[in-house]
Amino acid sequence: METKNKLFVSQVVKKFDLKIVVNEDYTDREIPSTGIIRVGFELAGEVLFKEIWSIVYFGSKESNYLNNFSNSIISKKLRTIFELNPPMILFGKNFKHTNIMLKVAKEFNIPVVKVDYSFFELNFTINSYISQKLSNQTMHHGTLVDIFGIGVMLVGESGVGKSELAIELVKKGHIFVGDDAINVTRIGGNIYGSAEESTKDFIEVRGLGIINFSRSFGIERMIDSTRIEIIIELIKPQKEEKIIFERFGKDLNYKQFAGAYVVHYKIPVIEGRSIADIIETAVTDYKLKMSGYNSAQAFIEQLSRKGK
């Protein structure tokens, strides 16, 4: 089931440690829409909408435009933007009319924040965070880890050992994201996963029960979210079952997941095998293929040369 999240100014301020210059008591305002926008049309008097739902940014471009007017006109133009009721206003270090802006801001309940980011940097930091938070989410059962910088979703039937495997991978130096309930978000063609809020920071180990992950292994072994690039399906074969597993590995297999196609490995869970080592090898193989090297193809070429 898809769910639509709500996002508030307070969450963005906390996430990026932003400094509110005025109206710090109004961080409970909702951010209804993605994007950090510039308001060139509105400053010029072309008001297209009755309200602005995205965060507004003022930088050098807006400052250069406003330089053409007297302080009273600048104040009037800025008041027009505040009357459109954006959830939050950001201004950069190159915006030169902050005194007038802050004076106008005191008439409204809109937080105003000074940022050191350029508009370009904002789109890769704050706006990316907003886009992820406001995208539709689906809940998936599994365990999510980050291995060599690649997000890996471990799936399989209950009791196959996903949580125990995650602990083993963390002890080998990898990063834990979440266990059991994973919120999955698609942004464009990319899939992102994070722990569901109610289970965040906890992991269930059969025979031990519920363990607080950060207290047991250190907060530095955790991250909030990761881009999911690989799904590893753990399968415990039964004697009477015939399951075909990959033997050659020339081509990557893909699985449709949360509306996109993600690389998919099936790994049999057999006593005596180090599944953590095999998963590390799978991730390494994936990274090699993404960089243009294919071990299976190289093997074929080697056999071909030997046969000549």
UniProtKB/TrEMBL annotation:
Cited InterPro entries: HPr(Ser)_kin/Pase, Hpr_kin/Pase_C, Hpr_kin/Pase_Hpr_N, P-loop_NTPase, Ser_kin/Pase_Hpr-like_N_sf, Sigma_54_int_dom_ATP-bd_1
Source superkingdom: Bacteria
Ranges for domain HPr(Ser) kinase/phosphorylase N-terminal: 9-129
Binding site for ATP: G156, E157, S158, G159, V160, G161, K162, S163
Active site: H141, K162, D180 (proton acceptor), R247
Keywords attached to this entry: ATP-binding, Kinase, Magnesium, Metal-binding, Multifunctional enzyme, Nucleotide-binding, Serine/threonine-protein kinase, Transferase
Protein name: HPr kinase/phosphorylase
Gene name of this polypeptide: hprK
